[in-house]
Specification:
By secondary structure, the protein is of the alpha/beta class. Helices cover 40% and strands 18% of the residues. Strands 1, 2, 3, 4, 5, 6, 7, 8 and 9 form a 9-stranded mixed beta sheet that branches. Helix 4 links the parallel strand 2 and strand 3. The longest helix has 17 residues. The relative contact order is 0.15. Pfam families: Methyltransf_25. InterPro entries: Methyltransf_25 (IPR041698), SAM-dependent_MTases_sf (IPR029063). It comes from Actinocatenispora thailandica.
Length: 265
């Protein structure tokens, strides 16, 4: 956990969703949230919400949002957002009472819980605190994200990167142990079928698994051009909605969102 905290204390979460694939991730995640969360005002628990990129947007839309994150620097930034409360916490042991919120977001924790038992605990805590029938939306990183990103960015010329990717493909565990730590920090990268299986093990009912960026996220500068133009951005979002649940394309997306809910009984 120390390596993960060190990575996030660099402050990259403040700007990560501002351009390129990050911008597409943010636009698509907001699009998915808008279609699957209750209408405002709802009480939303944003677990692992970092600096509040989604919490602030949801609060501005009229929701009551509380953010929990293990990185104090993230919590300080999020707590300053209008309409957002925030506290340091752990997805595996939430302080919220049973059935106390209308919806739960897990848009970060499952990345960094390397053991399945820990991910199961995070899913279980989301199930516990959400009201019956309430949605739980969880983001995961694709097993193949580093391989594809490495091709686009030329990282595969470094034998350390190739070895890291080989381990990730074999086990799902992504460990950045090289000098300088220039790549993503320690994480677990899911195969497309894994998040739904984990959610069901915790007792949630799974509605859909959606590709966030689809297969277009490695387009680089071309992606920035498309998203900078309102008509281009609309076209990208419209087309990706059409194939967001296509099973044969899920693994090509950098991120997936699993949409689940607590059974009513």
């Amino acid at each position: 956990m120390a390596d993960i905290t060190e990575y996030y204390r660099r402050g990259g979460e403040r700007t990560r969703l501002d351009a390129g694939a990050g911008l597409l991730e943010g636009l698509r995640t907001r699009d998915i949230l808008a279609r699957h969360l209750p209408a405002p005002p709802a009480t939303i628990l944003d677990v692992g919400g970092a600096t509040g990129a989604y919490a602030g947007w949801l609060a501005a839309a009229g929701h009551r949002v509380h953010l929990v994150d293990p990185v104090p620097e993230h919590v300080a930034v999020a707590a300053a957002l209008p309409g957002v409360t925030a506290a340091v916490g752990d997805a595996r042991t939430l302080p919220q009472p049973d059935a106390s919120v209308d919806a739960v977001l897990l848009l970060g924790p499952l990345y960094h819980l390397l053991e399945r038992a820990d991910r199961r605990r995070a899913w279980g805590e989301a199930l516990r605190v959400v009201r019956p029938g309430g949605p739980v939306l969880a983001a995961t990183i694709s097993r193949f994200a580093s391989l594809l990103d490495g091709v686009v960015r030329g990282y595969h010329g470094d034998p350390r990167f190739r070895a890291m990717v080989d381990r990730t493909l074999a086990t799902g565990v992504h460990r950045n142990t090289g000098p300088g730590r220039t790549w993503f920090t320690d994480a677990y990268f899911h195969r497309p079928d894994e998040p739904a299986a984990e959610a069901r093990e915790a007792g949630l009912a799974v509605d859909r698994v959606l590709a966030v960026e689809g297969a277009v996220w490695p387009l680089g500068d071309r992606l920035d051009e498309l998203l900078a133009d309102p008509d281009g951005a609309w076209l990208v979002l419209d087309q990706l909605r059409k194939v967001e649940a296509e099973p044969s394309l899920l693994g090509a997306s950098s991120h997936l969102v699993t949409v689940a809910h607590r059974p009513a009984r």
